[in-house]
Design a protein that fits this description.
179 residues; elongated
């Protein structure tokens, strides 16, 4: 039986697609590259979510290593990482700032009142202006900035205790050693 080359094309295409899918499944989705790493935090001024806070702007990040966390009251994974952020805030290990994304100030404030507020300042980005400049793909995402306000690391997904100790803390320790 003679098999023509044309009859093999669908089989070869299927094998190629399966190979590409297999390669994609083996990759960690939290390791998305960011063009913002090693660049200054984009210029922004975010109105506060809570009445007793001031606006959040890049100047707040200067002079210290900071963690900027993008969250929303609608985000289930944000609730997963919240206990770790609360612990870090109690320990005062790192300055923590929040960006309440695609939310109303009322919803963000109510969420923080219900679950606790780990943030020194939390600004509202209701219309995604800052988020677009940062290249955020979803919540939660977190950025670590150095004392000059440059983004040095991007975490996609929730900050669990394991993520903090294995991934983010080594970055913070490296930045501390640089100063």
């Amino acid at each position: 039986m003679k098999v023509s080359l044309i009859s093999l094309v669908p089989v070869l295409l299927l094998v190629g697609m399966v190979a590409l899918f297999a390669l994609g499944l083996g990759k960690d989705p939290s390791l998305l590259p960011s063009v913002m790493v090693e660049r200054p935090m984009p210029d922004f001024v975010l109105e506060p979510v809570l009445d007793n806070m001031e606006v959040f702007a890049p100047a707040d990040l200067l002079g210290q290593i900071s963690l900027v966390n993008v969250f929303g009251s609608w985000c289930a994974a944000c609730l997963l990482e919240h206990p770790t952020l609360m612990r870090l805030a109690r320990e005062q290990r790192i300055a923590i700032y929040g960006v309440n994304w695609r939310d109303s100030a009322e919803n963000g404030a109510n969420w923080l009142k219900q679950h606790g507020n780990p943030y020194l300042k939390v600004g509202l980005d209701e219309h995604s202006k800052m988020i677009i400049d940062l290249g955020v793909t979803g919540a939660p995402e977190t950025y670590i900035t150095d004392a000059q306000g440059r983004i040095r690391f991007k975490q996609v997904g929730p900050i669990t205790e394991a993520v903090w100790h294995q991934t983010i803390l080594p970055v913070v320790l490296t930045l501390e050693a640089e100063t």
